[in-house]
Amino acid sequence: MKTVIKTTNLQKIYNNSVAPVKAVNNISLEFQEGEFTAIVGPSGSGKTTFLNLIGGLDKPTGGEIYIDGTEISTMKESELFDFRLRNIGFVFQSYNLIPVLTAKENVSFIMLLQKRSKAEMEQRATEMLEQVGLSDKLNSRPNQLSGGQQQRVAVARALASKPKFVLADEPTANLDTESAFNLLDIMEKLNKEENITLIFSTHDQRVIERAGRVITLVDGSVSKDEVIS
Amino acid sequence: MKTLLIISWRNIWRNPQRSFVMIVAIMAGLWGGLMAASLAQGLMNQRFRTGVEQEYSHLQIHHPEFIKQDNAKYVIDKREELSNHLDNDELVAAWSGRTIVSGMMGTATLTSGVTIKGIDPEMEAQTTFLDKNIIDGSYLEESARNPVLIGRSLAEKTKTRPGSRIVLTFQDLEGELASASFRVSGVFQTANSYFDETNVFVLKQDIGQYLGKEMVVNEIAIVLNDLDQVSEFARTYASKYPELEIRTWSQLSPQLAFYNELGSTMFMIILMIILMALAFGLMNTMLMSVIERIRELGMLMSIGMSKRRVFVMILLETTFLTLTGAFGGMLVGYTTVHIFQNKGINLGNVGGDSLTDFGFEPIIYPELAPSYGLILPILVIITAFATSIYPALKAIRLKPAEAVRQE
Known about the structure:
The structure holds two protein chains of two kinds. Chain A is globular. Chain A has helices at residues 47-54, 77-87, 103-113, 118-131, 147-160, 177-193, 205-210, and strands at residues 3-15, 20-32, 36-40, 62-67, 70-71, 88-91, 165-169, 197-201, 213-218, 221-227. The two termini of chain A are 16 Å apart. By secondary structure, chain A is of the alpha/beta class. The relative contact order of chain A is 0.19. Helix content of chain A is 35%, strand content 29%. Chain A has one domain (3-227): P-loop containing nucleotide triphosphate hydrolases (Rossmann fold), CATH 3.40.50.300. Chain A contains seven helices and ten strands. In chain B, 55% of the residues lie in helices and 18% in strands. Chain B has a six-stranded mixed beta barrel with strand order 2-3-8-5-7-6. Chain B has a two-stranded antiparallel ribbon with strand order 11-12. In chain B, α2 (16-56) packs antiparallel against α11, α11 (254-292) crosses α13 and α13 (307-343) runs antiparallel to α14. The two termini of chain B are 30 Å apart. The model of chain B has no long low-confidence stretch (mean pLDDT 88). Chain A binds chain B through residues 48, 52, 55, 57-58, 78, 81-86, 88, 90, 92-94, 96, 98-101, 105, 109-110, 112-113, 157, and chain B through 3, 7, 10-11, 13-14, 295-296, 299-307, 309, 400-401, 404-405. Chain B: Keywords: Cell membrane, Lipoprotein, Membrane, Transmembrane, Transmembrane helix. Chain B: InterPro entries: ABC3_permease_C, Lipoprotein-release_system, MacB_PCD.
């Protein structure tokens, strides 16, 4: 299997006024193409910081990050913007859709920034919304959708541009059980059908049970890395 | 870019109430600015027009010594040649030769210092439209015996009216004191009450006989077909008649030239003040809009929307908001100006009558130069751009990873 993400001795130290805090402490991990990984751990264990680092949203204080063989830890900020745009899909806890755009426009948005053709955007956005079960909500604005539906649009948006991997930061935290299961079904299906690498940070047992690999972080270090058969 | 335009436009309507208030504030500000500027412009233009049309004309020709000594004995030489020249010059719309004598006007009750102007009624009417300013009695008639026109202010001061007898006292060309009785044929009123109080008009031949010479011309006032030709005309005649002093309206009355400039300067000053005040309101609105959207802006930057695009988006939002208000304000402003530019706004009832003491008319006709229609949107866009810089910088300085988790 192809390695999509590789981190070597990854470190993120915050120098606050009392004492330096090692949010991520020497993490060396590899993520393979098509993996469905859950990163778990108590609050303050470094899950979000780790996701920010491999998502190019934050810079490490030590170590290296390779995405598909390209080292991103040394990239300039402007290069990282472009790198994220072309390689990484994001799903956020609070959905974070653009409220003034319709579901279809939201899904097309990243492709638009990537300067894809109009026809391709139309086709792919419609296809993705169909895949997440929202073919009847193409022209609905976020405030006309339920929380679960909004999160499904966010998933469709993250996957529409065919990123190398998708980072989801506690995507089910704000969802009721039914919506959470529904979302997980969709993500599991897309993971299998489109062979997309999914990495979740989560506290949610429902997500952990679906993951193929569970990495547990404690105090910024990997305490457990198990592959679930 | 099209999507950015759509998002920006839709973004300003997220909080319709706030945007509406801001748009109305911009509209009201610009409307007020346009009204104030158009009234100032109208006032200045009216003063300029009445000053040039009724008092100074486009140019005046004198004997150089007459200007220094104000003595009627300094007449314009080569009068015949100059008259022929002016009659045949295509640039000249009208001209009037005048006798100018300083003297006293006496009535049974009062004496007042005046400038006595001996005129040819027909030529004067074509040059300064004096006949149109008669508010009581009649204009000068050649057949009448020693008719005189006096201004309204002077008539009120000396309690005279058409038919009243007055005595004009002045020095003749020999320096001897001369007095003559005249009968008021009419009362005139211009926009300048001081002019009305200090000038009387008589027939040129009437004053000439008392001065001791039939035809005395101390001043020639000229009106051209095109005001822009004034300087060129003055140069040409100055080279042909070096012995005469030829002065343009701006040399005759630097005050009028100042008014002419002041109209457009006032417009710019008023507009700048209003736009500056609006800029702070706009900046506040845009800052609030950015602060309310920190999580969304963080998301946009996280998924790869460049800082440049985020900056442009905020800039477009400010521009849309400003332009919507500006066009509304311009529409209302120009409509109001259009309504009142022929009708005028009468300030007579609110103390505006005193304006005539300074040469202004109490009825103001607002005016806006067409060029303002271009200047205004440009200034508004510059304001929008300048105003959006701080909120836009605030937006792009956000750290995506932190912003996206903002509660």
